[in-house]
Amino acid sequence: MKTVYFDHVATTPVDPRVLEAMLPFFSEHYGNPSELHRLGREARAAVDAARAQVASVLGAGEKEIVFTSGGTESDTLALAGSLARYQPGHLIVSAIEHPAVMEAARALNRQGWDVDFVPVDGDGVVDLDAYEQAFRDDTRLASIMFANNVIGTVQPVAELARIAHEKGALFHTDAVQAVGSLPVDVDELGVDLLSLSGHKLYGPKGVGALYVRRGTRLQPVIDGGGQERRLRSGTENVPGIVGLGVAITLAAEQLPEVGPRLESMRDRLMDGVLERVPEVTLLGHRTQRLPGNAAFSVRYIEGESMLLQMDAQGFMVSSGSACASGSLEPSHVVLALGLGAEDAHGSIRVSLGRENTVEEVDAFLEAFPPVVDKLRQMSPLYVKG
Q: Which residue in 17, 196, 226, 253 has the most C-beta neighbors within 10 A?
């Protein structure tokens, strides 16, 4: 049985070209970038080259890129690091942030910071009026994700950043899902801080970056040897950093071709599910969403059951955020759209990648409706109309 991977929001396979670039830095060019001998200089040159690659794709300066262990660390550094110099005041996040931002905000709340979680509409778009009204004189930071990992909705980041700056606050965006899938230019967006992660764009796990606009004051959350301009101590993950540089470059080069193709397949999948399966709700904005993300709430059955049944059919999908796997709680993102807990439990996410095909989408559309029907027949909640 052929297996089809439809869970690219959770992680992506490492591109063979990325792996090829990384391999020499495990066993041949294995020096510590802080050392001055030849191997150290080779490693430093590789890190600097990767920094230039990341900066080029984002439209940033090389000194504005800080390498981290991934999106979670980048988000934590952005929130905790930018607020460390202030007395506890106020910050704003959206109600549908990734747990990396949510938990960083809650940790700050335990330290005395007031946190406002601004609502979203039924499509998952931040309520601009509520957002603007949430600002206070002591609001230091607003953090709104670029694109949501569960429902795929893309936010009007440039407008959100403009409002934050008018109110005298910094603006951070978790762009982990956006970078590699959408055009991202930090000057056009006007953001002060932006997080990204390697494993979401066909790079390795365990490496990410934080864009820090020149002049933005940041204090480290990891102290030690003072690497990354004293913003992130620890010997650099040279193979991972090299891989991130190559991966983000390849993603940017392929985006003009890959983006429209993924959008077409995504729309084919969304339309097919809505046409073939009754009592299904599309989650997220119909068009203002990630190119490969299709998410649904299927009434009367649980997402985990659909996931396991589709896995048995050879399709790997998700019942929501993989970062909260194992939790019995309904997705806070789906609840924020106004759906009840029962409908939130029935959510399923299909996320396409650049290696997927129209034939795989069509095969999914053949396999999914019988699975839903089978599970509904077993559900005590379902009464066939």
A: 196
